[in-house]
């Protein structure tokens, strides 16, 4: 009798556990869990078009998304780097890499959309883009341009218009894998190590967003794996700052 019931019990247990797992997945990520990321292009995707994941930015100002994430950026074509593993991204390594492969030592400069700059012996082009998602997926960017997707360093710049001075804000960023951020020419945040792209994975010390024009500059570096990032500002209560206008010039 017991032998006949054993297989039936196993089936019932499997069905119950499957239902629990399915229900948990349907609820979505809970507090502290990662925000789901858009899928990477399938292997057979040969379209290589920016419009799949980005919109060409216009001269009209753009707001942040509802959660304060900054989606408008000037993005430079990738600097190819010989990186075989991401655990080399110490503070010293990142500072040296960003200083060596730098398009300008003026951290308040705003490049022009479509212009080319020289980084080392490479001529690289700037693109003004709006990401269609809260994060900016640099794998999708480099794939669309048919540029190197792994072992890359990518420079980023955006212009933030603030309607009033906001003190005690923090820059909150997530990236894959290492990155560095400057606000109005001053270092704001360094994310070293082999990281996954998790929103608000690192936050800066208290900063001030000036009334009017602010320049946010970043650099993201990755070896194996998909490079991407997300950035927003949090006020002193930890609430996302959303009353910002974004431009690329």
Arithmetic mean of pLDDT = 87
Uncertain segments are: 1-33
* Strand segment count: 16
Rg over CA atoms, rounded to whole Å, is 21 Å
Give the helix level as a range of percent. Answer: 10-25%
Oligomer: single chain
Terminal CA distance reads 79 Å
Structure overview:
The chain has helices at residues 2-26, 91-100, 138-144; strands at residues 54-56, 62-63, 72-76, 79-80, 116-119, 122-131, 136-137, 152-162, 166-176, 178-183, 186-191, 202-203, 207-209, 212-222, 228-234, 245-247. 17% of the residues lie in helices and 35% in strands. With 249 residues, it is α+β, with helices and mostly antiparallel strands. It is globular and about 40 Å long. The chain contains 3 helices and 16 strands. The strands form 2 sheets. Strands 1, 2, 3, 4, 5, 6, 8, 10, 11, 14 and 16 form an 11-stranded antiparallel sheet that branches. Strands 7, 9, 12, 13 and 15 form a 5-stranded antiparallel sheet that branches. Strand 10 and strand 11 (186-191) form a beta hairpin. Mean pLDDT is 87; it is low at 1-33. The protein has one domain (50-247): Jelly Rolls (Sandwich).
